[in-house]
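Why do we bother with a discrete structure alphabet at all? Because it lets us treat a fold like text: something you can write down, compare, and reason about line by line. To make this less abstract, here is a complete entry for NAD(P)-dependent oxidoreductase. Read it the way you would read a sentence in a foreign language you are learning: slowly, and without expecting to understand everything at once.
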Amino acid sequence: MKTLVTGSAGHLGEALMRSLQDAGQEALGLDILDSPYTNEVGSITERSLVRRCMADTKVVFHTATLHKPHVATHSRQDFIDTNITGTLNLLEEAVAAGVDAFIFTSTTSVFGDALVPPPGAPAAWITEDVTPIPKNIYGATKAAAEDLCQLFHRNQGLSCLILRTSRFFPEEDDNRAMREAYGDDNMKTNELLSRRADLEDIVSAHLLAAKQAASIGFGRYIISATTPFSPEDLEDLREDASSVVRRRVPGFEAEYARRGWTMFPGIDRVYVNALARRELGWQPRYDFVQAIACLKEDKDPRSVLSRLVGSKGYHGEAFADGPYPVD
């Protein structure tokens, strides 16, 4: 069974290609950049190339995209061409080729302004029931691509699952104030509480989605590390995160003190992965509790796969003010 992976030179694309090849499966990688995991170099906006790559394909993992870091360096039209037209090309050719499962990698960024509650309100409990309010061209085009996937399931019967992934990139945060306030490992460990996932868990969710797509038909799922929090924590979490983490993960403070780390003073949103765990049978392994246990033993809490793929960046140039420019 042939699998097509778009964006095969990226973090997730490479991780999927590695995992599929390790499992002895036939996988074809497509990307605009050449890489050890790219078989076809070109853009998903090229219909003839997409058609050729789709031949004999049964599963599509569509990870190729322009990301948030490209908002300041690419035009809105670039985002529409890649994220919408490119997705349309893939969907139409997938139907023509008789693809069994189309897995679209989306992002929690589609929620946009719905992620940040007004001052004085509790932290937001983000489930699939929250209505997205995109705040930039990245979120808007990913939301539009999601709707195209739903349309192709409804009208063409394509089995299509959408995975809204939280942060899994290893690069530094683009927010200068956050970079200056927290060490990178400190910040990423904090984020595992509410808005980050390990790359290996992201991959396992995609592989399970491909297996479940035919029986589910269509669905949207938040893919993020399992949070230790509950809805009753949200009011305290917004104002005093440390007290809530202390209650839910006893002993974290001693390890943070040993490393000179600090917890965020407040957390404004929590991504909830319960639907993906229930319907996909997903069992993510990497979360804040696991990270603290590893850190206590001076072990790297990241997965082997995450370390193998490493950092890639999003541009072919360096920027003086951070890992990428902010629009």
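What the structure line is telling us, in plain words: The mean pLDDT is 94. The CA atoms of residues 134 and 167 lie 17 Å apart.
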